[in-house]
Amino acid sequence: MADAVDVAGIVAWMNGFQRRVHLEVTYLTDLDSAIGDGDHGVNMDRGMAAVVAALGPAVANGSVLTVGAALHMVGMTLVSTVGGAAGPLYGTMFLRMADGLAETVQLDTDGLTDAFARGLEGLRARGRALAGDKTMIDALTPAVDAMRTAATEGATLAPALAAAAQAAEAGRDATAPMLARKGRASYLGERTIGHIDPGSGSMAFLVAAAREAFGA
Amino acid sequence: MIGLVVASHSRPLAEAAVALASQMAGAASVPIAIAAGTADGGLGTDPLAVAEAIRRVDTPDGVVVLVDIGSALLSAEMAVELLDSSAAERVALTSAPLVEGLVAAAVTAGSGSPRAEVVREAEAGLAYKQVQLATVAPQLGEGFPLAGLGAPQVQAPNAGAMSAIVSVVNEHGLHARPAALFVAEVRAVHADIRVRNVTTGSGWVPGGSLAAVTTLGAVKGHQLEIQAVGPDARQALYTLVAQTEAGFGDGAGSVAAVASAEPAPPAAPVLRAASPGYAVGPARHLRAVPIQIPQWEPGGPEEQRIRLSSAIDQVAQELGQIKGVALRSPGGSGEAAIFDAHALLLRDPAILAQVSARIDAGRGAAAAWAEVLGAVRAQFEALDDAYLRARAADVRGLADRVLRQLLGLGSATVSGKGILVADDLDPGEAAALNAEEVTGIVLAEGSPTSHAAILARSLGIPMVTGAGSVARHLPEGTVLAVDGSAGTVRPRPDQATVVEFKAKIKARRSALKLAAKAARGPAKLADGGPQVPVMANIGSVDDAVRAAGAGADGCGLVRTEFLFHALRQPPSRAAQAEVYRAIASVMDGKRVIFRTLDAGGDKPIPYLPVAPENNPFLGVRGLRLCLQYPEVFADQLMALIEVARDFPVSIMFPMVADVRELREARILTARAAFRQGGSVPEGLKVGVMVEVPSVAMKAAAFAPTVDFFSVGTNDLTQYCLAADRGNPAVAALGDALDPGVLALIRALTRSARGRASVSVCGEIASDPAAAPVLVGLGVRSLSVAPPAIGEVKEAIRAWSRPEARDLARRALACSDPAAVRALLAAPRPPA
């Protein structure tokens, strides 16, 4: 069990997220086909394949040494390879997570929570979405809250991320009854009710992958 | 001047919008950059691409960005943040509708207007449609929201104003192009101009606003009142009246586009199964820029002929490359022959004579070619024989390829992963299919005997033909369930069908996987002899992935000239190293043998030009050519050595005839290693291809200087038997199982024994029947087309070493290749 997150941890996290997205590409696409343009799974799969291809070698050959540099690379890679709205959204999230960590080699629970909170702020600003708009924010917000609560109580990474992953999944499932107000799904109006938001689906995977990489 | 950026999900959409805008008066000079689609040609947006597009058109005047739906706005906003702050301040994002907004913005920018005005005009781009359809109350005159140019918006004539009344003569009224020309004229004069539609009794609108002028709803015959204020009012009025009366030169036919005259399909097509398997996914239409034959082409007859012949040369070269792809697909050697047939059709003297006659009669190259090839295609279509009728698609494909080349149009692509929907596929398009992207194929026309069907089967892509015009009209992205075994297509399948299809896809995949599993194990002779590595011949990173998945024990031949064949300049060392490294890492620690650039002969590379030769196959090709370009060669060697420091890599030189050439190449290799950073990497092995018969006979002279020999049976056979593979009259002579060729291999393995290993990477190695003979001759490893790996391994496992040696002995004693093949086909006594 890791007590802190370092670049190798970020690589493991991203590798885990990539595997999950790749395995669930049909699931994500099906979610998106119901209320959007059906490309979220394929887009994320393409983006994460590029992240994994770039990040591992960069860490291995020493060109990426800090947590901030790794998160920055993830963000920039997603921005340029995803293709859909998830590119700028996830890209912004990781770039904001990287803020202030350019020289940081290890992150503890508080540090990781702060990073996630910055990422969430970035997402809110980029998408101008609020809680309840049926977006990825609805999965990330409860996750960050749960992490913050756990960190305040002095929890280590494992319990904090376990709580976060659980909260993200609950948040994702809670998007089903919501009415989409952002993005292309908003064109479908009432028809979006009853479907889980695809962005919240991938976001829940991202948090779950963090739990597996740092928490177990 | 303001620069414009179009940020769109779709490149074709963006390009078409830009084409519409650039047609407008005064807009042609406006710099417009496109950031559209994903890097792989799919639908999507990319903030970095938007930022780059902004940089391309950025000037001190600023940039206006138009976006389409969804993520385009997010990407554009992010792009602005990526710019440095002074550049970011010059950028304005607009909520304008993409097409109308771009047209208005281009016209406004073209007149040198400031950024704010360009944005205002763009955002008012819908005004005309809204007024016309009365979705908003007409607000002409005083209330008009586009109070541009500072002209006072009052009903009463201005003091000192001059005015004139003029009739609209344009067939479609003062819309679109004529309106833009009117606005352009207004902006060119030194006067404030306003205009109203006297016939409809509209209010005054500023003459310099395209959006405003189009809201006048001026149709043919309406009377406009034009009012001018300012120092040049008189001159301005004179010009505007004259231009309006002249219809802005918008005479009939000046922009007439010639539609391609498609004959009506003869009968309703019938759904047919063309390639087995199942697929569910979104419909992806194969989109191409439509070919429009220009009515006029520049230059006289001689120039037309030169343009045509260079287009034909270019297409012939492309076909050679596609043929290479076909050769590397399973069962593809038969398919490759079609490209030879095409090459003949391209040079058909009867066709060329007809085309030339039309050119002499004053037709342009494209028009003449289209007419003659259209007639040839019609002849095929009229035939009774189904197979020959299917060749009509080949003719269409070939004709279009040349036209695209002549007219500088790109070839057709799909927008992303899914089920390809098209009228028909020509063999070139089919050979370029990517099985990762295209999970199924539905053709409106086509037939199961077409080359597209054969290639689809070899790629394992399910395909249905004859889906009719329904297929053509499926909206992009409609989910389809394709059963390529039964020959059915269901649009918008219900949940149960999707579940059923996914189960079928899974079952089929696991059956294929089981077969592939057998391919992964080592191939050992039946008597437990040493493993015979079965490696893969590849020409791309994708091939490497496929080869690794198919159980390759390494790559025995990487055709490096294929990796960068599209380039006009030599690839940089870094770009090369990246691709070589990707291949080596895909092969996961297994040895990869890179053949250095093998150009010349029938494989020209743009950046390694060869002086014209009477007989290129006996001229400067392979290593001989590389030695003439030492810097290009050194870059490749350095890139390979860089990767060899981390992975087991071998370098192989093609077309070696003489020990001195090899020695020179080895010196260059050592020098490259020094320049790259030190000694020759320990794991690096160096070998030569055996394609020149004499090398097989004098292998003892080479053996001390090489780690391995790899027999390129294709060239070895054609040199040994003096039979050109590409010449149908003698191609049958060139059989790699000719006892003479086998004897050369035997001589080679004898000389090399104990000093260098011998492998075979020619086509014959992919033939499972030939594997035991080659092993019996002393060949230690084989390199084959990836799909053949499993079968070749199985063939090796079925033979013991003594049996293989005996078979080889008997093959060497045969009188001709037919006898050798009969020997291989004969049933073996049970072991």
Range of strand content of chain B: 5-15%
Q: Span from first to last CA of chain B? A: 84 Å
Annotated CATH homologous superfamily of the largest domain in chain B:
Phosphoenolpyruvate-binding domains
State the separation between the terminal residues of chain A, measured CA to CA.
6 Å
Strand tally of chain A:
0
Work out the largest interface and the residue count of each chain.
A-B, 26 and 25 residues
Estimate the global geometry of chain A from the Cα principal axes.
Answer: globular
- Residue fraction in strands of chain A: under 5%
Q: What is the CATH architecture annotation of chain A?
A: Alpha Horseshoe
- Gyration radius of chain A, in Å: 16 Å
- Which series of helices and strands of chain A comes N to C? HHHHHHHHH
CATH architecture of the largest domain in chain B: Alpha-Beta Barrel
- What's the assembly state of these chains? heterodimer
Fraction of residues of chain B in helices? Answer: 40-55%
Number of helices of chain A: 9
Brief summary of the model shown:
The complex is a heterodimer of chains A (216) and B (831). With 216 residues, chain A is mainly α.
Defining traits:
heterodimer; A: 216 residues; mainly alpha; Serine Threonine Protein Phosphatase 5, Tetratricopeptide repeat; 68% helix; globular; B: 831 residues; alpha/beta; Enzyme I, Chain A, domain 2; 4 domains; 45% helix
How does this structure look, described?
The complex is a heterodimer of chains A (216) and B (831). In chain A, helix 1 crosses helix 9. Chain A has helices at 7-23, 25-35, 40-60, 67-81, 86-98, 109-127, 137-152, 157-173, 198-215. Chain A has a single domain, classed as Serine Threonine Protein Phosphatase 5, Tetratricopeptide repeat (Alpha Horseshoe), CATH 1.25.40.340. Chain A is built from nine helices and no strands. Chain A is an all-alpha fold and 216 residues long. The termini of chain A are close together. The model of chain A has no long low-confidence stretch (mean pLDDT 90). Chain B has 831 residues and is an alpha/beta fold. Chain B folds into four domains: 1-125, Rossmann fold; 151-249, Histidine-containing Protein, Chain: A, CATH 3.30.1340; 272-491, Enzyme I, Chain A, domain 2, CATH 1.10.274; 530-800, TIM Barrel. Chain B has an eight-stranded parallel barrel with strand order 16-17-18-19-20-21-22-23, surrounded by six helices. Chain B has a seven-stranded mixed sheet with strand order 9-13-12-11-10-14-15. Chain B is elongated. The A-B interface holds A 26, 33, 37-39, 42-43, 46, 76, 79-89, 91-92, 126-127, 183-184 and B 37-40, 42-49, 69-71, 74-75, 77-78, 282, 416-417, 477, 479, 502.
